[in-house]
User: Fold Immunoglobulin-binding protein 1 from Effrenium voratum.
Amino acid sequence: MQLRLFSPNEELEDISTTDLKYLMVPYMLAEAAAACRDMEQRLRSLRDALLFWRAFAADCQRLKLGHAADFAAMDRERDPSDAAAKREEKIARYKRCKELDEKVAYLFSKKREDLGDEYQWGAGSAFDEEMERELILMLLGRAVASVPDNILSAQQEMPLLEMMIARGGPGKGPAKPPPAEKPYFVKIQDRSELQRLYREMVFRCPHPMATMSIEEAADLEILEMREQEAVRVERQSLQEATEADRWWDGDRYGAKEDWDEEQKLYKDRDFDAFKDENPWGSGNKMANIG
Assistant:
């Protein structure tokens, strides 16, 4: 990956506020690569996304951006086997992300009030450079917090994609049967040819001849065993992925459903609060003047 926007010798204080947002470039490239839905290209896209995520995390760790627990999770080769530890880690990360989201939303709303455009950067107004730098740092910290889960999800999906490619790719159906052969007809021209045919039938081998050698039969049996083993491994992987999704790396079955219900409850509460703060018709600033 030939991408280097900042020097490895630069410190966070050396990077101007105008250039600070470009630290997000590798992260955005990773998100774009991971969003690929073409199953024939998805494996390569996930590998590219892993490179971009790790490059982004390395830059942020060097500049001391983000939480230390997120970098520790990325450095681990595998998830901790203790379900309680994984649950505590996910809860702590969720709380950090929620706090960052609230601060980012506040700063964006403040910027929109002062500038009229939350995506306008570097303009002078009541939204000064210090507030803009704080907003970018929070966005970087929020992106770092999402990288461990993204990397884990990609690493779990890649073996399934490799097995799918080994089977022949997406949508690969069973092999078509060979075309049926035409029946063989014996044309008898005269009586002597008929007698010759009778002699061949009388003096032929009394038992059916072998259609393949012992080596060919052994190769065929080994091939069938490999196919059965591949099907078994694929079925086991899908079952484990389904169970992990149901457990959601928690300590009880159905933890994912409880999490989704809790998130829906928070969303409904936020929407009710929004409706209370913004009653119907409050946004209509135009008056009917006759």
Observations:
- The mean pLDDT is 81.
- The radius of gyration is 33 Å.
- The chain has two domains: 1-150, 216-277.
